[in-house]
Known about the structure:
mainly alpha, 43% helix, globular
Amino acid sequence: MKRKSRHRLAPRLSDARPCGNECKGPLALTGEIIAYEQGELDDEHTVALFQRLVDTGLAWQLQGHYGRTAAALIESGEVTQRARGAAGAEG
């Protein structure tokens, strides 16, 4: 009979949470993207996520949905984009 481990090796999907600027690094951002794709983010956290994706330039490197959504949020004024030539600017 196998014993159950008390330690979880990987976080559960339900553990993903939006964390804004207090969480840093690629794993935190990955958790936010997973939460977004699972429909777990409210509008405020979705806009904050896309602002981070635009700021880091990842919005333009991920699958097309992210770039199109970022562009729509920029056009609506909910997300701001740095001037051309700045890090993360599309162009």
